[in-house]
# Entry
Amino acid sequence: MYLPAQTWPDLADYVESESESLAVVPLGSTEQHGPHLPEGTDHMIAEALARAATERTGHLCTPPISIGVSSHHRQFHGTMWVDAPVFRDYVENLSRNLTYHGIDRIVYVNAHGGNVAHLREVGRRLHEDETAYAIEWMWDESIPGLIEEVFETPGPHGGPKETAMIMHIANELVREDQLENARDGGVAFDGDTARVHGATTFYDAIENSPNGVFGDQTDATPEVGEQLFDAAAEQLVALLEWLDDQSFEALMPESHVDPQPGSGRGGL
# Structure
């Protein structure tokens, strides 16, 4: 159920149902993804997966949040970002808005690594005051074995996995004549090269890749993209069904441990 397409009575029927108190919020970024992919890559992937999964489960899907924490890509034209505190506060306010309408559990369908820590922080805030149970989900982290199976050098950003996904979702936006340039002008990425004596020494993507991307983009195909999309959507459906089966009480924080076992003072 895609929220923007519904009337308010439709949504009233949804939240009035005791079994329907879950919402999905797709999030991504608008940032450089090399010479071959559109800047909307992340939020396009997130929205496509969120809508595919909620069409199967019947859960509520909000419009996407399309600008995230992306200042580490700012040297490349067109990258947009908001500062981390602003992003956290915006997502938290949006989430509390959903709870006003009867939602008590939220899945952030996220496709941008720069958002992860901040979404976890928002989820922690909502959990601590027992307002809602909100968790972050990244599509590629749900199918790591498949990604390793189909790509020799998947790359963490703008690589073949994202290229294949966009080939499946919106193939007309992929500059296929730039795939070799993306590969040759970027780097294959070895996590160890980004560390010196155990310390991460860079802050911006351009410090590791001249064109901002990693991996071998020529390995991507629409067929592989469909395989990745279907597998990730299946994982998301399973997560939504699992979360919907949990009682709200079971998702809330545990009580404080009893400082004197047997005293009955636990939870103080």
User: Anything to note?
Assistant: DSSP finds nine helices and six strands in the chain. Residues 3-249 form a domain with the Rossmann fold fold (CATH 3.40.50.10310). The radius of gyration is 20 Å. Residues 222-245 form the longest helix (24 residues).
